[in-house]
Fold this sequence. Notes:
Layout: E1 12-15, H1 29-45, H2 57-60, E2 93-97, H3 113-117, E3 123-127, E4 131-133, E5 139-141, E6 145-148, E7 154-157, E8 162-165, E9 168-173, E10 176-178, E11 186-191, E12 194-198, E13 206-209, E14 212-217, E15 220-222, E16 229-232, E17 236-241, E18 244-246, E19 252-254, E20 267-270, H4 278-281, H5 308-314, H6 325-329
Parallel strand pairs: 2-3, 3-6, 4-7, 5-8, 6-9, 7-10, 8-13, 9-14, 10-15, 13-16, 14-17, 15-18, 16-19, 17-20
Antiparallel strand pairs: 1-20, 11-12
Amino acid sequence: MASLPLSLILLFSLLVTPLLVFSTDIQDPELVVQDVHRSINASRRNLAYLSCGTGNPIDDCWRCDPNWENNRQRLADCGIGFGKNAIGGRNGRIYVVTDSGDDDAVNPKPGTLRHAVIQDEPLWIIFKRDMVIQLKQELVMNSFKTIDGRGASVHIAGGPCITIHYATNIIIHGLHIHDCKQGGNGNIRNSPEHSGWWTLSDGDGVSIFAGRHIWVDHCSLSNCHDGLIDVIHGSTAVTISNNYMTHHDKVMLLGASDTFAQDRDMQVTVTKHEHAPESEWRHWNWRSEGDMMVNGAYFRQSGNAGASSTFARASSLSARPSSFVAPMTVTAGALNCRKGSRC
Length: 343
């Protein structure tokens, strides 16, 4: 069967599931889907000639504000889906990253991204200028942090990348994350009070391990050693939206194993792409509308013939022809936001 376009932006509510989850974290998926639909419909109703609106409820929540630089924390009110309640570093102070270095994973230098993400207090992390950050070890994040790349071109590349490990309320926005390598087999600090030995990492772009209330939005990810985004080990209340993912064959992993009990209540709103043998995917519900099949590619409909009504309830966007991919994804990934103008 043909693969779905990796860059196609869909808002899809997936119920997969974690053991160590507080009961308040488990949401009714039908209510979440209805809430997403309401947000989309409200944005579309505001579309008009010369309007700044796009019909994307996340972007329309903040991008039309020319003073977005001084209202950065407004972003925390703009999420949708299962990760809607991720507040990141909202109500915390602004931390400006001034140093692209990463010389010491145990005693990071103030002004570096690593020093920012390990702090105990809520922080809204921004960047003084364009920079390329080549990490020496995984960037292990503490809870209640927002990494906000708007206003600068920020690349995390050429080394280990981002790890969210037993942390909550994190927003990652507007970063270029690519060419991520394996790290580990060394000491890494994850809070001012604690550092420990980390074994060899997988080399993911963003690894979410037992995380809760996580939102990854408007990031550009490509060409990592393993997955671009992994959501595993009981992570839940996650939204992955408006990202551009390319030059990779293992885009996302949602749940480490079908038999892993801690993943059975995982709830994620995400663009979804999977590889599986025909013996497995032939039982899934797959539909194609208007897709162009080239170079020998083909599509085989499978699963329940009456699944269209299920898709209508579960998907936030109806299917579009593949010729729409370019215009649909023109604002996906990290945005070119410049201070003093609409983003």
